[in-house]
């Protein structure tokens, strides 16, 4: 996976990528603005940065899709969120609180540390909020 810069690894862009990922048939930028209740100009700027980094593309109808790199990145973002969330539930937080706290800090935790936590949790395959995709480089096949 490409190195994720601080400009890309922000809570807002993580939410955008997950939202685009959830819509296989593409998303209009206006839908993103509406879904998150933010200005269209803010969405445009973020999408521009995600496009520059190679994570999204537009079709001829101006619909937004993830590129293959964007899909890889989003799989990592989901794995990171769920591993942190599981770490919190194992430490005693409720599933709801674990999910919220993971969202607050996930953008600050690099992959190397996610892999360490994954190892310490026994390469889990499930967290409260969903399936944890195994990473061959961390968890084996
Ligand atoms: Zn969650
Ligand atoms: Zn692992």
From TrEMBL:
Sequence intervals crossing the membrane? none
One of the record's GO molecular function terms: DNA-binding transcription factor activity
The source's superkingdom equals Archaea
Q: Which Pfam family, an example, fits this chain?
A: Fe_dep_repr_C
Does the keyword field hold Transcription?
A: yes
Q: Which InterPro entries match?
A: DtxR_MntR_Metal-Reg, Fe_dep_repressor, Fe_dep_repressor_sf, HTH_DTXR, HTH_MarR-typ, Iron_dep_repressor, WH-like_DNA-bd_sf, WH_DNA-bd_sf
Q: Where is the signal peptide?
A: none
SUPFAM superfamilies found in the cross-reference section: Iron-dependent repressor protein, dimerization domain, Winged helix' DNA-binding domain
User: Which stretches make up the HTH marR-type domain?
Assistant: 2-96
The record's keywords, sorted A to Z, are:
DNA-binding, Transcription, Transcription regulation
Which PANTHER family does UniProt cross-reference here? Answer: IRON (METAL) DEPENDENT REPRESSOR, DTXR FAMILY, IRON-DEPENDENT TRANSCRIPTIONAL REGULATOR
Q: Which family does it belong to?
A: Belongs to the DtxR/MntR family.
Q: What is this protein called?
A: Iron dependent repressor
């Amino acid at each position: 996976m490409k190195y994720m810069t601080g400009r890309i690894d922000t809570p807002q862009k993580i939410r955008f990528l997950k939202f685009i990922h959830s819509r296989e048939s593409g998303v209009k930028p206006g839908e993103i603005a509406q879904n998150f209740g933010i200005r269209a100009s803010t969405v445009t700027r973020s999408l521009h940065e995600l496009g520059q980094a190679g994570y999204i593309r537009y079709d001829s109808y101006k619909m937004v899709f993830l590129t293959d790199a964007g899909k890889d990145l989003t799989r990592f973002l989901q794995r990171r969120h769920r591993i942190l969330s599981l770490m919190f539930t194992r430490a005693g937080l409720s599933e709801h609180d674990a999910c919220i706290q993971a969202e607050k800090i996930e953008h600050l935790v690099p992959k190397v540390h996610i892999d360490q936590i994954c190892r310490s949790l026994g390469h889990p395959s499930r967290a409260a909020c969903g399936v944890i995709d195994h990473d061959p480089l961390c968890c084996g096949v």
